[in-house]
Amino acid sequence: MLVLTRQGHSLAAAQRTVFLAATVPLAACAIVPFVGLGPAVLILIAVNIGLGVWTAIYLTMVQDVAPARVSTSLGILSGCGSLAGALAMWAVGKVTHETGSFLIPLVALAVAGAISAMAGCVANRERPVLQVAHDQIA
Q: What count of other Cβ atoms lies within 10 Å of the Cβ of residue 19?
């Protein structure tokens, strides 16, 4: 992000670029069922690196989207994420038991990551200076 901002890009644009770039290895988990063990391990390492970068940018974007209510916003998002994670554990177990494959859960993770990245980019869009000032006062 530092390189992008030094090149003249706005902070929001740099965040969106890094966020979308981190989504690529995250979404690569969808191809794991189609490769052998060695490539699958390498892909999952890339997925975890992408997830780490994705989460770090996601947390900084919350500060930009809702500067006056960071803790409330992050609390609600984290609570929803924890609930989704708990339900996902149950769903993944049920689906893999029925199908004998991780294909559906891994594709679902890739799709959810891509949709979340698009939503994050929309929420972190450039706003007019007057709107930003109004949001900080309110």
A: 23
pLDDT digits 0-9 by tens, 24-83: 898 898 999 999 999 999 999 999 999 899 888 888 878 877 778 888 888 888 898 899
Domain regions of the chain by residue span: 2-137
pTM above 0.90, yes or no: no
* Coil, strand or helix at 66: coil
Residue of 29, 45, 11, 15 lying closest to 114 (CA atoms): 29
C-alpha distances out from residue 22 to 86, 90, 99, 122, Å: 24, 27, 30, 16
CB count in 10 Å sphere of residue 33: 14
Residue in 33, 34, 81, 73 with CA at minimum distance from that of residue 54: 81
- The length of the chain in residues reads 138
Give me the helix-helix angle, 11-27 and 103-123, nearest 10°. 170
